[in-house]
Each structure stands twice: as C-alpha cells, then as structure tokens.
C-alpha cells in the first residue's frame, strides 16, 4: 500500500482537482453510497432517486444526533457542504463544515447563502475549533479516509461540549482479520484511497477518548444492494468498481452508523 504522503496526494486529487462529487455515480453534490431503504430496486433508478438516497443517508445521521433548535453543529469531512447545510433544517444556532481539501472548502463556501453556516480547512485529527465549541458532531462517509482515527476521536471529544452527541456513518472492515482480505478485494483499499479500519478499533478509539454509550449498528442492508444496483443501471462513465458489494457479501466490510456521547460535566 502507498505511504501516507502518496495516499494524501491521491485523496487531494480525487476530491480536489477531479471533484469526485461531479461524477454521475454520485450526483447532487454529495459523495456517499446512499441509503436505499425507500427505493424500489426492481426497476429503473433515476438520478433524482440517487440524490434522494444520499440525502437519506444524511438524515439517518442527523436523526441519530437528535438535533435541537439552537445546537451548534460541526461536520468533519464536509465536501461540497450540501449535507452540512442539511442540518440547517433543524434550526441550529450555527453549523460548521471542516474539510482537508482546499477546493472543497472553496466550493462549499461559494455555494453557501446562510449566515449560520461556514466552512473551514483542517484535518479530522487537528480541528481549528476551540474546546467545547459544539453540541453535535457528524461525519458522513469520510472516516474511511482518516489516517489517524484515534486523533479524530480525541479531537471530537475536545470540540464537543459536555453532553455533546457524536454520529458518523461509513464503511469499515468487519474485523482485524478481515482487513487484509478487504485490501486485496477492493481497489480503493488496495491503493490506499480507503483505509481498512476495523470497526472494533474505531469504537475502542472513541472509548479511549472519553466517549460514553459508544455503539455501532450495521445499516449495510440499506446500502450495498442499492449501490450495486445503481452501478449496474445508472450512468456509468466513471466505470465505478462494484467490488464493494461482493466484499460485503463475503463479510469483509460493512456500512455502520456509529454513535457516542460526551458525558455531561466532562470538559467544557
């Protein structure tokens, strides 16, 4: 696998110069596999349905956070900021999006017309925010790229106020034993674009950072089959790899909703 510098450069190109969100496989400015529970997969799938699945994935995470009016919200790995701004439906006091790719921050800023939302450049393991700045933290299909998940967990705990809520969704290796097979089975893992973080390691990092009520729930039944059907039927000039579904069927990878809470009275 490529070293950290090569992997970082590959992601910078993929999300910056190439602008992954502009590819037809995604659509709507999002970059996620989608939550397909409400889509009929027996017939054709429209671009509008594809966009709706990506909105639905954000809604799964936002619902898990149980956002309240006046909350301060941050998304780590915000991309174009389309999903970040979706949190505005819950009447927060402010929403911040963080991304490591300068072009993504620029795109998100240019598209934003709500004074409650703003976007910043920074890494998941080194966030440019003060202690206790937020009541809720989300991350949607970004943590599979994080080189330092333990650092992300520590920073998440730092920037959340006591009682703050944490929710992320993405795909992880189902176990440490499965990780090497996953790397061999899916090109994005083999090249280092995605990292085969075992889900139990992610949960362990959150607990070590001081989070309570740490849990992971599989939502793969509503992700893998729909994504594979879209790759089969939808616009495919990208020639996107369909190996994810095969790896999921082998039990090597799954898609998770991970939630946690910073205990009240701990920190700010």
Structure, described:
The protein has 268 residues and is an alpha/beta fold. It contains 10 helices and 7 strands. A 7-stranded mixed sheet has the order 3-2-1-4-5-7-6, sandwiched between helices. Strand 4, helix 5 and strand 5 form a beta-alpha-beta unit. The longest helix is centred in the N-terminal third of the chain and has 19 residues. It is globular. 46% of the residues are buried. The mean pLDDT is 93.
Largest sheet: 7 strands, mixed
Q: What is the average per-residue confidence, as pLDDT, rounded to a whole number? A: 93
The neighbouring-strand order within the major sheet is: 3-2-1-4-5-7-6
Measured as a percent range, the helix fraction is 25-40%
Number of helical segments with 4 or more residues: 10
How are helices and strands ordered from N to C? HHEHEHEEHEHHHEHHE
Structural class: alpha/beta
- How many beta-strand segments? 7
Shape: globular
Strand content: 15-25%
Low-pLDDT ranges? none
Radius of gyration equals 17 Å
Distance from first to last alpha carbon: 40 Å
Please tag this protein with its features.
268 residues, 7 strands, alpha/beta, 20% strand, 10 helices
Tell me the layout of helices and strands.
Blueprint: H1 4-17, H2 47-65, E1 72-76, H3 82-86, E2 94-99, H4 102-111, E3 117-121, E4 134-140, H5 149-159, E5 160-173, H6 178-185, H7 187-190, H8 199-208, E6 212-218, H9 224-233, H10 243-249, E7 253-261
Parallel strand pairs: 1-2, 1-4, 2-3, 4-5
Antiparallel strand pairs: 5-7, 6-7
Helix pairs in contact: 5-8
GO biological process, one term: methylation
Keywords: Membrane, Methyltransferase, Transferase, Transmembrane, Transmembrane helix
Domain Methyltransferase type: 74-167
């Amino acid at each position: 696998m490529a070293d950290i510098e090569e992997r970082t450069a590959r992601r910078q190109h993929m999300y910056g110069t190439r602008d992954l969100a502009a590819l037809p496989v995604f659509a709507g400015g999002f970059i996620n596999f989608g939550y397909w529970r409400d889509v009929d997969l027996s017939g054709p799938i429209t671009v509008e349905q594809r966009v709706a699945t990506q909105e639905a994935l954000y809604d799964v995470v936002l619902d898990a956070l149980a956002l309240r009016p006046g909350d301060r919200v941050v998304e780590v790995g915000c991309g174009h900021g389309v999903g970040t701004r979706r949190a505005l439906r819950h009447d927060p006091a402010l929403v911040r999006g963080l991304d490591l790719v300068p072009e993504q921050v620029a795109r998100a800023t240019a598209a934003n017309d709500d004074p409650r939302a703003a976007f910043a450049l920074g890494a998941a393991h080194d966030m440019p925010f003060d202690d206790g700045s937020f009541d809720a933290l989300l991350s949607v299909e970004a943590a599979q790229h994080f080189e330092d998940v333990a650092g992300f967990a520590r920073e998440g705990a730092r920037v959340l106020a006591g009682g703050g809520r944490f929710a992320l969704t993405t795909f992880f290796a189902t176990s440490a034993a499965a990780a090497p097979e996953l790397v061999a089975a899916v090109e994005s893992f083999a090249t280092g674009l995605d990292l085969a973080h075992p889900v139990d390691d992610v949960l362990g990092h959150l607990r070590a950072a001081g989070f309570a009520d740490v849990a992971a729930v599989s939502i793969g039944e509503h992700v893998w089959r729909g994504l594979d059907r879209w790759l089969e039927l939808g616009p495919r000039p990208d020639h996107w790899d369909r190996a994810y579904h095969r790896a999921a069927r082998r039990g090597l990878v799954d898609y998770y909703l991970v939630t946690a809470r910073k205990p009240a009275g701990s920190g700010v």
